Backbone:
């Protein structure tokens, strides 16, 4: 199978300068690979560093130690020495990230927000908006909300906007941080189904799912993120 | 791809005081680079050196012209530098009044830059002016009024239209929303965000507002005492700041 993501000896320590330079070692010795068509579940107790790891894979947190290689077209890009421009290019076409919370852009309507990843790739407004409407419908977001900015939406509604925004782009590598956390059972089933379809279509998924049912339904393997300080 | 703007080892002193020291970066077409830092950190001095308005004591600013020629900004004859500023570059001032001609109409403010480019066709200039008023969401029927009759938000829109009408490839912005009420700010930011994406503008944006930086900038430079203490993707710098000063800056705001 095609390797989409390869992580070697990744370590991450936060240094909190305003707090007198306290050093917080969070991750160390992280090693795994994820192939196309797989879903790797990151497991571990609260505070173990699961979200930190996911953000580092997205290039949101800085990679300080170790190596993260991501397949971008027919090349493996090493995050540690990628220019800002090539990280942005990775995010445009290869890596999607669903955070637990939606970061809203003031005044931008939900439909445009969801269409944006396609627009950024040069898809016409009409086509991008049609596809955005399809995804919002699939995720059961009422059509009366599509033309409103999501700032006032409920947690579950915002989360579905977030998922639509990442799914529409059909990224070959999807990083998911508790994508179903604020959803009711019906919506959770819909999202699980969408994640399974993406994976079966050949996407590689790395996810944090607190719900055991979701883990069982989507995951193909799991990786234990060990809390560092207890081990030390 | 060649960078549009290439800056190396730029420095400026005022008497014994170092205002800017050893600043370097590349800026590519379509990129928005935010410069953040507290007041007095050298942001505006840097912007003025980048935009040809203040001669540096040290270093180089190079700009790639439309024909691919690499121009060393401060080695250019004065008239060529001025021509660049009037056509290929834009400069949006914090105070709209500093960037507008207050004695002439809105239409003339927009048309002036076209005329500087050599356009002499009155009808076409007026049509362009009307088009640009609409693009910045201003009522076209106010084209013959002087900017002094406009609200602060409208003046800022007019300043933006005046700058963009010549289709510049690089625009400098110094705190473009700071002088406006919060409600007006949000609309203007939204407009800027759209225009920048649509026109594939390269922008150097000075702001002390991290929320503005988050919304508009792809990359950030954090400045302290005239030096760049941290650089990176906007979300990296704001979510995982490394330098003590960046951490202080980020932790000092409520939400960005
Ligand atoms: N930007 C940051 N700066 C400093 N410390 C951070 C930062 N982000 C995370 N941490 C710290 O890293 C540790 C791991 O946090 P993280 O959010 O990755 O845990 P988690 O495994 O996702 O937990 P949960 O299951 O509760 O979501 C925590 O101690 C957290 O405070
Ligand atoms: Mg987490």
Residues:
């Amino acid at each position: 199978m095609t390797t989409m993501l390869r992580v070697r000896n990744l370590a991450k320590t936060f240094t909190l300068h305003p707090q007198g330079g306290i050093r917080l070692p969070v991750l160390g010795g992280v090693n795994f690979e994820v192939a196309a068509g797989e879903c790797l579940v990151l497991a571990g107790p609260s505070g173990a560093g699961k979200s930190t790891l996911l953000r580092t894979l997205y290039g949101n947190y800085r990679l300080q130690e170790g190596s993260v290689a991501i397949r971008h077209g027919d090349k493996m890009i090493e995050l540690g020495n990628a220019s800002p421009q090539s990280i942005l290019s990775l995010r445009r076409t290869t890596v999607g990230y669903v955070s637990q919370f939606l970061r809203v852009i003031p005044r931008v309507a939900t439909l445009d927000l969801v269409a944006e990843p396609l627009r950024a790739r040069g898809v016409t407004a009409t086509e991008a908006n049609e596809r955005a409407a399809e995804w919002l419908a699939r995720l059961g977001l009422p059509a009366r909300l599509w033309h409103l900015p999501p700032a006032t939406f409920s947690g579950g509604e915002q989360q579905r906007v977030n998922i639509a925004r990442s799914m529409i782009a059909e990224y070959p590598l999807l990083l998911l941080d508790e994508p179903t956390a604020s959803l009711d059972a019906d919506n959770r089933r819909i999202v699980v189904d969408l994640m399974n379809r993406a994976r079966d279509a050949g996407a590689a998924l790395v996810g944090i799912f607190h719900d055991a049912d979701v883990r069982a339904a989507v995951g193909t393997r799991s990786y234990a993120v060990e809390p560092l300080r207890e081990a030390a | 791809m060649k960078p549009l703007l290439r800056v190396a080892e730029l420095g400026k002193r005022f008497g014994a005081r170092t205002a800017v020291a050893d600043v370097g970066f590349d800026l590519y077409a379509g990129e928005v680079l935010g410069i953040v830092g507290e007041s007095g950190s050298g942001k505006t001095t840097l912007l003025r050196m980048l935009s040809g308005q203040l001669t540096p004591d040290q270093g180089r600013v190079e700009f790639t012209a439309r024909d691919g020629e690499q121009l060393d900004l401060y080695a250019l004859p004065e008239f060529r530098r001025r021509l660049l500023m009037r056509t290929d570059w834009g400069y949006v001032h914090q105070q709209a009044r500093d960037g507008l001609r207050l004695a002439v109409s809105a239409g003339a403010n927009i048309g002036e830059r076209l005329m500087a480019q050599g356009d002499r066709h009155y009808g076409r200039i007026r049509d362009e002016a009307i088009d640009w008023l609409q693009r910045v969401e201003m009522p076209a029927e106010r084209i013959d009024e002087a900017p002094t009759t406009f609200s602060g938000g409208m003046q800022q829109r007019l300043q933006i239209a005046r700058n963009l009408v010549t289709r510049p490839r690089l625009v400098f912005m110094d705190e473009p929303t700071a002088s406006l009420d919060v409600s007006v700010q949000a609309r203007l930011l939204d407009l800027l965000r759209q225009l920048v994406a649509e026109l594939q503008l390269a922008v150097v944006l000075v702001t002390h507002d991290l929320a503005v930086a988050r919304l508009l900038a792809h990359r950030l430079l954090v400045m302290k005492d005239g030096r760049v203490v941290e650089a990176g993707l906007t979300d990296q710098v704001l979510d995982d700041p490394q330098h003590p000063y960046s951490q202080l800056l980020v932790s000092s705001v409520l939400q960005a």
